[in-house]
Amino acid sequence: MKKIIIRTPNFIGDTINTTPCLELIKQEYPEAEFTIVGPDFVRELFKYDPRITHYITFPLKRKKKLSTYWKIVRELRKENGELGVIFVNTFISALLFRLGNVKKNIGYNREGRGFLLDFSPEINYHKHYINRYAFLFNEYIGNKYVYLPELSLRYTGQKTFQFDNSHKTIALYLGGENKEFRKYPDEYADYKKSEVMEFDLNGQKVTWFYETYKFMKSPCVNVTAWIAVDEETMFVCELDKFRVDEQPVDVTEEEVRALFAGVTIR
Questions:
Q1: Residue pair 106/25 in contact by the 8 Å Cβ criterion
Q2: What is the dihedral of CA 97, 98, 101, 102, to 10 degrees?
Q3: Statement: residue 192 has pLDDT above 60
Q4: Cβ-proximal residues to 121 (8 Å cutoff; 6+ apart), any chain
Q5: Got the DSSP string for 19-73?
Q6: Are 46 and 36 in contact (CB under 8 A)?
Q7: Which of 14, 232, 256, 261 has a Cα at 20 to 30 A from 99?
Q8: Is the pLDDT confidence value at 141 over 80?
Q9: What are 254-265's pLDDT values in tens digits?
Q10: Cα-flanking dihedrals φ and ψ of residue 257, to 5°?
């Protein structure tokens, strides 16, 4: 697989939620080049991402213009895409990829577009967006991967804001036209905390516990482990694990031991 075309969502947050899936695609096809099709902001969002070699972009306000559609088709035909991964669920997005001569296309079966796609599972709205995007590709390759890579954006490490951001920030969201006043149902959280456990590691006592919870039915686990150096100092490690499917997430003592691999406390 040499060229993969990816149609990103139309919103920045949703596009960031596709990054675990992009990493899964890269793991599966390490030699492939990615072309991103999406609103203009994707150029800045993926500016420092070496996986992305080309962009086909458009102003978000003009996404439904005939001139935009024709531009996308023309540019897609130049790409010779072998696989199209379509994260938006519109009929027109699948049609444009088909007209753009992308050889094989995958996307959820929405708006009657299944006949335009080579792989089109039914969408599960109970999954969080992150899992939903990753599940599309993972199911296409036979559910090969179990755990999700982390959300990630490549950046330079340099400061990009000219103001003091060392203060705590509190955000309050009161709803709006997009999300109205909804929140995720409490029954989806299913929070549980394990008992506190201990084991010996090279003469040091490691104390640890884990918390499991669900986010839109997507199982997650957070592990916290620490070594008490003295009464005022602790060496703390954390581990987060997420699954692509809806099966429980397991954590073992061996994984916790691995967190401290190579650590020597004097």
A1: no
A2: 50
A3: yes
A4: 108, 109, 136, 139
A5: HHHHHHHHHHSTT-EEEEEEETTHHHHTTT-TTEEEEEEE-GGGTT-HHHHHHHH
A6: yes
A7: 14
A8: yes
A9: 888 888 776 665
A10: -60, -40
pLDDT at 233 over 70: no
CA distances from 99 to 70, 203, 241 (A): 10, 65, 39
CA 108 to CA 69: how far, in whole Å? 20
Regarding beta strands 3-7 and 83-86, do their DSSP bridges make them parallel or antiparallel, or are they unpaired?
parallel
Model confidence, pTM: 0.69
> What does the DSSP 8-state code read for residue 212?
E
Query: Is residue 144 within 8 Å of residue 244, measured between CB atoms?
Result: no
The H or E element that residue 74 is part of is helix 66-79
DSSP 98-163: HHTT-SEEE----TT-GGG-SB-PPP-TTS-HHHHHHHHHHHHTTS---BPPPP-----SS---SS
pLDDT for 110: 94
Q: How would residue 90 be classed by pLDDT, with cut points 50, 70 and 90?
A: very high
CB 146 within 8 A of CB 244: yes
- Give percent above pLDDT 90 in the chain: 47
